[in-house]
Amino acid sequence: MYFYLSKFLAPILNLTNLLFILLIIFYLINLKTKFRFKFFSNIILILLLLISFFPLGNLGLKYLEKDYILQDNVYKIDNIVVLAGSENIFSTKITKKLTLNDASERLITSVKLALEYPNSKIYYLGGDGRIVKSKFNEVHVAKIFYSNINFDLKKIIFIDNTRNTIENLKAFKNINNLNQSNILITSAFHMKRSMLIAKELDLNIKPYAVDFRSINDFNILNYYQRLNIAENWQSFNIFFREIIGILAFIMFY
Q1: Fewer Cβ in 10 A, N or C end of the chain?
Q2: What is the pLDDT of residues 53-110, one digit of tens each?
Q3: pLDDT tens for residues 191-217?
Q4: Structurally, what CATH architecture does the domain formed by 74-210 represent?
Q5: Nearest 10 degrees: CA dihedral of 66, 68, 72, 75?
Q6: Domain map of the chain by residue range?
């Protein structure tokens, strides 16, 4: 139920989507009825302008990522746990060529650590988190990646029947409950929620964050030169979705 609810609510859990939907609703109400929502419409417009022209999303991502910028020393790794999310399923399926997204560091770093710790094993946790699924999923894309670089697939355990981070980590715990040294690879903005879930599952695992989105040499003139409203929206939507995910997990688990 939690999974389907999160997927059906996904469009309005995207804050900019929600604000635009509310703005349209209030506009139509103002046209058709005697009720006026000018105050609320103005508030929404102000929020949209703030998100558009100021780096609020980047500041939110800094909050999510700040605890994982400096990596704790790792002396021994038995299991490298990789959360799916860097794979472009549809493009890879259609073009028959590997296509990854901005989170490709998840896969790249898993290989780096596996080479540094040759006795370790990679656990790739994925599947398909879409409501309408296909037979071709994240695991298939990941296998193409590892095969393309001639990495030994025998050193990887693929779990392809999970749909979100909660199911990913539950599946890992179910198949590996040994007292071993585990490390978790995921995007830095997603690590806070992932570690919260791992703690609730009593899973002994250390964070290894990659794909940092908020680190930059901020300067007001450089920011003006590179101003990108769509990018500001995207950053804020990622931050907002993660905060909602954290709150939902705390409330329902």
Answers
A1: N
A2: 999 999 999 999 999 999 888 888 999 999 999 999 889 999 999 999 999 999 999 9
A3: 999 999 999 999 999 999 999 999 887
A4: 3-Layer(aba) Sandwich (3.40)
A5: -170
A6: 2-66+225-252, 74-210
Burial (0-12, 13-18, 19+ Cβ within 10 Å), 94: exposed
Contact 209, 71 (CB under 8 A): yes
Residue 47 vs residues 16, 26, 58, 229: alpha-carbon distances, Å:
9, 15, 15, 13
Distance CA 85, CA 128 (A): 10
Q: How many residues does the chain have?
A: 253
From the list 253, 237, 241, 238, the residue with the least C-alpha distance to 196 is: 253
Q: Say if residue 134 is exposed, middle or buried (CB neighbours under 10 Å; 0-12, 13-18, 19+).
A: exposed
**Which one, of 82, 81, 84, 73, lies nearest residue 180 by Cα?**
81
